[in-house]
# Entry
Amino acid sequence: MRTLPALIACCLVMSMASGATDPALTPSAKNPVAGGAKPVESARPSNSGASSSSSSSTTSKTSSSPRLSEREREEQAEADLSAKIAARLAIMRANQAARVAAAAKAKKAAAVVAAAPKVYSNHWSYEGESGPANWGRINPEWAKCSTGNRQSPIDIRDGMKVDLEQITFDYKPSSFNVTDNGHTVQVMVSGGNFITVSNRMYELVQFHFHRPSEERVNGKGYEMVLHMVHKDAEGHLAVIALLLERGKPQPVIQTVWNNLPLEKFDTMAPAVVLDPMDLIPARRDYFTFMGSLTTPPCTEGVLWLVMKEPVQASPAQMALFARLYPLNARPVQPGSGRVIKESN
# Structure
């Protein structure tokens, strides 16, 4: 619109120029003859006037028509530009809205993923990819299986012989149930069975079996071992290890075998009772050291009490367990300089 004054000025100049060159005016009319001669008058002055008027009207139309056309073109151009700008702004706003929506959706999805608990495998075994060498990589909660420095079992060597206090046993006949948990045969015992050692009382929770024995004594292994797991009021664990060797039948073990479930992961809850005290050897000397659970999560801080005198079990009793679990023992772990004490 700023160019309109200039256009109007141009139109006026053009109008004046066209009046000066109007063909209705003859040269004689515009320029008198030299010497004072009268100019030749038109035979039809009225027509000449009409012609002049017509020419002026035509010139006016000619000069006004481009002005309106130019103005319309400018207005149309402005309208087109405004439409293009509006369309572009609409596209930009739509793209911005889409980006904001996508970012919000991604943030929400990330929040859902972060809030969802990570699921790791809980499957472990004694062989292959899920075997002891890989326990620490299967589940982050089992990292101690690979990184711990007080892992069990160990080869018990160079124990310091001292006057260890006797373990006080307070066991009694108790109800129980037997579970084949896919890793071993485990016996859960009812409450009320305790040991006292180092002025701390632990309650028997369960006992289970491994073949061959996980612990070694000066490099010597045994055919099986029985682990009696205890816990105190603060959650500390103490495990008594009974090394098993071939000999006469063991009555508590036989009671357990008599009540084995028919399927893995099943549990039997018999009406009979067993007395854990019948498992304990007559001689109560022992080795002691700090270690860990021998299965995932390989929790450390476990007090180990390994009885020096082996417990006998019959060959048939040994063979029955071997049919279920021919190999369910973790390999020996590094001693890592831990202190081992033993009874004189």
The chain is about 35% helix and 20% strand. Confidence is low (pLDDT under 50) at residues 1-65. The first strand starts at residue 155 and ends at 156.
